[in-house]
Amino acid sequence: MPLALLALAVGAFGIGTTEFVIMGLLPEVASTYDVSIPTAGWLVTGYALGVMLGAPLMTILGTRVPRKRMLMLLMALFVLGNTLSAAAPVFGLMLTGRVIASLAHGSFFGIGAVVASSMVAPDKQARALSMMFTGLTVANLLGVPLGTFVGQSIGWRTTFFIVAGLGVVALFGLAALVPEVPRPEGVRVRHEFAALANVQVLLAMAMTVLGFGGVFAAITYIAPMMTDVTGFADSSVTWLLVLFGLGMVAGNLGGGKFADRALMPMLYASLGGLAVVLALFTITAHNKVAAGATVVLIGALGFATVPPLQKRVLDQAAGAPTLASALNIGAFNMGNALAAWLGGLVIAAGHAYTSANWVGAALAGGALLLALLSSVLERSGAAAPTAATSAEGTEQPPAAVTNG
């Protein structure tokens, strides 16, 4: 694996940390600005909305910019947003800083996925993607707990200054390690949008929404589930999330390795296994040991889907993959929001906290059905790439680029 993937992973680590660390620091931020917790919650909502808006916007704006330079510009935007968040004297500026940082999120992962794939041979592309996304999984394992600890011990502003510093490290890493990837000739915004007309691209994005949504249907409500149902102390929830993070790291790396060998079978196994484990979580949640083991499996199976899903989008939108790749990152966030909302509806209707696991199992099962449908259509030729994405002059599938 090229050393340049390390620079992408550091950027992913910073982005993953800033996205989730705010959840553990909301009380401190609310106290600083003298606002309510629900008002401070806009720092989470605003970031999520910024990711969904920024993914297509920044990708389209960067169509005419060489990809290495665009990655550096996005990381500079990330540094600016987090610095503004850390120094903001009023809540409105803090929220503005969060939105600015979020605009880089989807496009960084989307363009980064294309660049990562271009640096290795075709049979190693999923593993290259998993190396980049390892930064995101390690952020949940180490960055978020440590950032929360620092924020609660020293001050939340320190946490965001540190995250901005990580962005600076990533920026220099991108400048020094990532090779110059020529901007594809002949590719225009219309080509990027035309790639979205491919049924297989849309099916892959729908798999992302449902499959990854299955994970967050359960994990969103893990704290009350583990304390009220399983009987863990409140202080144990942090360690359960660490177990979840360990599963994420292992699943992400394993998913990349096996997806290079057999992408669709890897999706069948991970999505099917995720649906089963989430359904079983309604039972295992009543036993501490079994619940802990299940949390690890949910993290592993959930993130085992990430490299193959991103690779599937890149493959099917090969004529113009950048926008589709970025939008698929937004699809992960959409799945998170959808699953949390559906799980909340079920719980609000009077069902137990474990009922959210059934929602997750249904979503993962739906993603599995879409994967099977995608394969059937592919074998029958019913979802062949559109003429627009394969027309002369558009970008060809990523070829290996050496890193010096």
Would you give an account of this structure?
The protein has helices at 4-33, 37-40, 42-61, 67-87, 91-103, 105-118, 125-153, 156-177, 189-195, 199-219, 222-230, 236-261, 263-284, 288-304, 306-316, 321-348, 355-380, 387-390. It is built from 18 helices and no strands. With 404 residues, the protein is mainly alpha-helical.
Layout of helices and strands, plus pairs?
Blueprint (H helix, E strand, L loop, with lengths): L3 H30 L3 H4 L1 H20 L5 H21 L3 H13 L1 H14 L6 H29 L2 H22 L11 H7 L3 H21 L2 H9 L5 H26 L1 H22 L3 H17 L1 H11 L4 H28 L6 H26 L6 H4 L14
Helix pairs in contact: 1-3, 1-6, 1-7, 1-8, 3-5, 3-6, 3-16, 4-5, 4-6, 4-8, 6-7, 6-16, 7-8, 7-12, 7-15, 10-13, 10-14, 10-15, 10-16, 10-17, 12-13, 12-14, 12-15, 13-14, 13-15, 13-17, 15-16, 16-17
Give the N-to-C terminal Cα separation.
13 Å
The ordered H/E elements are HHHHHHHHHHHHHHHHHH
Number of helices: 18
Give the overall form: globular
Q: Which structural class matches the secondary elements? A: mainly alpha
Question: Which regions have little confidence, pLDDT < 50, spanning 5+ residues?
Answer: 383-404
Helix % is over 70%
In short:
The protein has 18 helices and no strands.
Give descriptors for this structure.
single chain; about 400 residues; mainly alpha; about 80% helix; disordered C terminus
